[in-house]
Structures are given as C-alpha cells and as structure tokens.
# Entry
Amino acid sequence: MSTSLRKIAVITGASSGIGAVYADRFAKRGYDLVLVARRAERLKALAETISKTHGVSVEPFVADLATDEGQASVAQVLATNPAVSVLVNNAGSARLAPIIGSPLEDSLSQIALNITALTRLTHAALPGMKARNEGLIINIASALSLHSLPISSVYSGTKAFVLNFSRGLQQEVADTSVKIQVVLPAATATELWDQSGVPLAALNPETVMATDAMVDAALIALDKGESITLPSVADAELIERFETARAALFASTNTGKVAPRLLPA
# Structure
C-alpha cells in the first residue's frame, strides 16, 4: 500500500455498525481511510460511498481478523506505513450463552477477535506512533468490561482485557503525544446481536443506543480529552467515584501482610 499524502485512519470491523460510522466520521475530519472487514462487497460499497461523500481516499482491505493470516496482513500495513495516525480497534464478536453447553469454538473465536487481533494490531501500530510522537488508538470495549452475566463470561472477560490493556497503554504513552481512548458502549444497535444468541429485538428499545449517537458521543469525549468513555452514563461523578474506589482498592493490596479478617482464629 502506498503512503498517503494525508493522514490515514485504519478502522477494523468497518463494513457496518460502529466501524462504518467511525469511517464516515474520520473521513469527515479529513482522513484517508483503510477499512478492514471480511465482507468484500459491503466494504467496497461503503468505501465508494464515503469517498464520494467526503472526497478522501478509501481503501477496502478484506481480512478476517479472527485468523492469523488476516491479523498479519493488517499488522503489516500498520507497521510499515508512516501515514497511519489512527487505529480504531472495533472488530469484535459476541456469543452470549452459558459456558455449559456452548461449543469451545465460540469461546476461542471471541478471544481471537476481541483480544488477540486487537493486541496484535496495537503491537504493530504503537511503536511507529511513539517514534513519530503522534497517533491515536481507539479501542472499543463494552459496558460489560465492568460486569458479567451468566451468559457473558467469555465476552465480558475479553472486554475486561480491552479495558485494562488500554489503561496500561495510556500510562505507557503518558509522556508522549500518542493518545489511547477506550470506549465502553452499552447496548448499541449493531449487527453484533445477530450472531450473539440474543437478538436485538429481545432488548428493551429504550436501553438501546443508536450507533451514530454512540460514535458521535465517543468522539466528543475524545475531543474533550476523555481516556475512558462510557457514552450512556450521564453522571460523570459516578465514573469518578468508581475510578477512585478502584485505585484505593488496588493501593490497599500493596502490603505483605495477610488481612486480619483472614488470619487463623
């Protein structure tokens, strides 16, 4: 892939839903795009639409990020093209069902896409961004990063990884101009639900956020300097109290002494 004269945003899971909206919004901000997804026809159609609408270069890049081959092909672009200044790690999957009775492959496929692909692409993109002292990585996690359900043990586990992985990255690049934002949407109207085992129609419509609204809120938060964004949480103090309590709990573990409540009677 040739180096662009403009900055490039690479967006995974871009053929629909959250990824497609991010593609439109970054094009509107003047970025050329590399759009990554499995579905070639939909990707091509979206690329043509965005290019015509915003007058930017849009390259459809067909890859299955659940596979080693797909991950390697996208990682190569991220590691070698210095025009890449934005990576949106959006590709993900959900299989919402109890572990008992579920195929092992359902769990492993979620881990491959939600954890392994995201980690590998970040490994590829981050060194160049840090060397250039410029760049942005947006990791799409979930409100289920903070909670788990009887049907979400694997999905919640993968998204908890994304949250804590992003926290560590934020500290790693704190003294640079590279930015890491992690976004924790609650229920959002995307096609992820189609294969999840819980159809979108089963949810209370009042609890489901429109995809455009979610992405626009996350980008407003990014522009305001938020590093951890929960687009549906109205009470900012609630988030701050959670973060304060989390930090205090971790600090309280830093002792070599057994907690008195756990000493032998």
